[in-house]
Amino acid sequence: MNGTTYFVKKKEYKWHAAYLKYRNELKVYELLKSKGIECYLPLRLSKRIWSDRVKIIKEPLFSGYIFVKVNTSEYYEVLFTDGVLRYVSFENKPAVIRDCQIDSLKLFLENVNEKIEISTDRIHKGCFVKIINGPLKNSIGEVVEMKGKQCLLLRFEPLGYNIHVDLGDNEIEVLTDTKVISA
Prior knowledge:
Order of helices and strands: EHEEEEHEEEEHEEEEEEH
Strand content: 35-45%
Low-confidence stretches: 121-125
Distance between the termini: 44 Å
Structural class: alpha+beta
Strand order of the largest sheet: 10-14-13-12-11-15
């Protein structure tokens, strides 16, 4: 070569949410894994009570959705997977979910699975907080007042879901707007 430097653009991977056929979450998860596509299916523990027994089961946190981390070449491979209907999108552009939101979701499920409540309510913005103690330390979320309890809210705007976790005043630090932007 004659001294010219060539740059190869690194393929950028981004998280997206895919909308699935009814009750196909586990099937799609296994199919995507077999294709070598990074995916995340958040599962929560749920108690089922029958007349003769109580059973703890794992069920999808977001019914009908799976998260995939793909680059442009893998983007369509997900759509050609049996059970996948389409990507969650706005204005005909697939919604991108930030890495920190996926990381926070994983952290929530690992540490406070049984306390998680899912809501599709459109909750107005409140104070943003950083958790200062416990297994969720350094996670950032929004505080809402619900039924007299103070909760941390992790908002997944592209899906229209909110995740709530009960917290005490001694477990959070209120952030200013500038701290939220830099976090």
